[in-house]
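Our preliminary data section would be incomplete without showing what the modeling component actually yields. Below, a chain of 115 amino acids is followed by its predicted structure, encoded as tokens that our downstream tools consume directly.
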Amino acid sequence: MEEFKHLDRDIQGSAKRWKKFVESECPEKEKLPQEWKSKTSLQRLCMMRTLRPDRMTYAVRDFVEEKLGSEYVMGRSLDFAASFEESSAATPMFFILSPGVDPLKDVEKHGNAIA
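Predicted structure:
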């Protein structure tokens, strides 16, 4: 692709700058070295995919927030008390767990409130 022409040469020629970028804790928040900092958000995302695929979740989140708005990346909170009221022995509650989600505090809080 023409937009990334000579990237390999630039990385070799400015190894220290690129190493600093690549080894950064949050490279998706850093500016790309030299003229690469003027790339579009999508081009920057492509470069992040190549250089730091482990940070893609964060980079995509930032991309979506920039292009669509923060409402598309903000988590939604569940009203546990309302969900509990809708449940019964015949209508149990199920928790689908994913990284960063832990309903234990809500369960304990509600259990202590009704005890």
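Residues 2-72 form one domain. The chain has two domains: 2-72, 80-114. Preliminary results of this kind motivate Aim 1 of the renewal.
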